[in-house]
């Protein structure tokens, strides 16, 4: 029996933070859940609401609105605080406002003596993750963002739908910035062990390839479409955060496309970007370098340049 409690702290109890919290509760992912928000009353209300669902949950969980001191013995601090993306606004537009929010969060978390992992969802997520790493002074392997985890899930769903196959048997990734410069390395996309591009028979090749490009565009613009329809996206990201949390707390060594610092992989240095990584209880155990084509490497390079420019603009 585990003696230690699996403890998660969420900073930012808005739509994303609480979709994540609700998912953690429904999947019984941790034992103790702390909610922190600049709007303390909101965090308290959310804690009450979740606690009232405990009678229907699969297992018990201690849930309360807390303080930064509560981060001291947490396994993961998950940051969902910030300003939500508005219609027509790019993720990079949010950067300056959210950088200020992070200055007010990271310092009290580290001052508490926190010695766990940071997981970041706030947009623009790759840059906010790098800011978290800089402000905390933590080893970059202990700081990760949701990166292209959600985009990858959207891609697998759409490909599964098109190929009439279970998305769980579709192995394909979205890489780079969680944003406009993200891309799909099609040379690495597989259905079971069959390269997806080989599924385009000789006669149907043009049609098939065009459909893949459409799917890639659909993934890239999904957030804009959802925001246009309902102002914000939160369920999908809540589930992506939960999946990453399970990989960490379960020491799973699962491959997930989180935002991780590149230190020479793909020829890139000192940039956080969405890449397939092996995730375990220590965080990013390692970045898994895929065998990208020269064209795909160029796309990743351009995406990383965009992210470096965004970061350099504020630090
Ligand atoms: P929201 O406005 O509903 O919630 C944000 C919360 O942060 C609010 O409760 C607010 O009080 C809190 N907050 C603001 N400043 C704070 C501070 N200094 N300290 C503590 N708490 C503070 O927004 P949301 O819809 O939950 O979105 C949150 C973030 O997640 C946004 O940046 C959004 O763009 C991002 N997001 C990321 C992804 C992804 O794939 N990574 C997907 C969807 C949304």
Automatic annotation (TrEMBL):
Coiled coil location: none
Residues at the active site: 178 (proton acceptor)
Subcellular location: Cytoplasm
Keyword terms: Allosteric enzyme, Cytoplasm, NAD, Oxidoreductase, Phosphoprotein
Any one of the GO BP annotations: lactate metabolic process
Chain positions recorded as NAD(+) binding sites: 12-17, 37, 42, 68, 82-83, 98, 104, 121-123, 146
PROSITE patterns: L_LDH (PS00064)
One GO cellular component term noted in the UniProt record for this chain: cytoplasm
Enzyme class: oxidoreductase
Keyword Phosphoprotein: yes
Pathway it works in: Fermentation; pyruvate fermentation to lactate; (S)-lactate from pyruvate: step 1/1
GO molecular function: L-lactate dehydrogenase (NAD+) activity
DNA damage as UniProt keyword: no
Ranges for domain Lactate/malate dehydrogenase C-terminal: 148-309
Residue intervals of the Lactate/malate dehydrogenase N-terminal domain: 7-145
Amino-acid positions noted as binding substrate in the UniProt annotation, renumbered to this chain: 85, 91, 123-126, 151-154, 233
TM annotation in the entry: none
CDD domains: HicDH_like (cd05291)
Subunit structure: Homotetramer.
Family matches, as PANTHER family: L-2-HYDROXYCARBOXYLATE DEHYDROGENASE (NAD(P)(+)), L-LACTATE DEHYDROGENASE
Family indicated by similarity: Belongs to the LDH/MDH superfamily. LDH family.
Free-text function comment from the UniProt entry: Catalyzes the conversion of lactate to pyruvate.
Protein's recorded name: L-lactate dehydrogenase
């Amino acid at each position: 029996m585990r003696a230690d409690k699996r403890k998660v702290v969420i900073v930012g109890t808005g739509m994303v933070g609480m979709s994540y919290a609700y998912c953690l509760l429904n999947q019984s992912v941790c034992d103790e859940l702390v909610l922190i928000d600049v709007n303390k009353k909101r965090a308290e209300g959310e804690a009450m609401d979740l606690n009232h669902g405990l009678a229907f949950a699969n297992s018990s969980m201690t849930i309360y609105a807390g303080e930064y001191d509560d981060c001291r013995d947490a396994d993961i601090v998950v940051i969902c605080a910030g300003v939500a993306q508005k219609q027509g606004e790019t993720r990079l537009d949010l950067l300056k406002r959210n950088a200020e929010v992070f200055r007010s969060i990271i310092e009290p978390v580290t001052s508490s003596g926190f010695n766990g992992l940071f997981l970041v969802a706030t947009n623009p997520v790759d840059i906010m993750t790098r800011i978290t790493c800089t402000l905390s002074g933590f080893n970059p392997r202990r700081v990760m963002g949701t990166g292209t985890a959600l985009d990858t899930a959207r891609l697998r769903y759409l490909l599964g739908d098109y190929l009439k196959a279970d998305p769980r048997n579709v192995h394909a990734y979205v890489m780079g910035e969680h944003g406009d410069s993200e891309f799909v390395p099609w040379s690495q996309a597989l259905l079971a062990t069959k390269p997806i591009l080989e599924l385009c028979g000789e006669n149907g090749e043009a049609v098939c390839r065009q459909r893949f490009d459409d799917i890639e565009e659909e993934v890239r613009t999904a957030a804009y479409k959802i925001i246009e329809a309902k102002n914000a996206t939160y369920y999908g990201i809540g589930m992506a955060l939960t999946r990453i949390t399970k990989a960490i707390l379960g020491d799973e060594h699962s491959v997930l496309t989180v935002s991780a610092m590149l230190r020479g992989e793909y020829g890139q240095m000192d940039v956080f970007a969405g890449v397939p990584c092996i995730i375990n209880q220590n965080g990013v155990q390692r970045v898994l370098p895929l065998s990208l084509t020269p064209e795909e490497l160029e796309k990743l390079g351009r995406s990383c340049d965009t992210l470096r420019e965004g970061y350099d603009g504020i630090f």
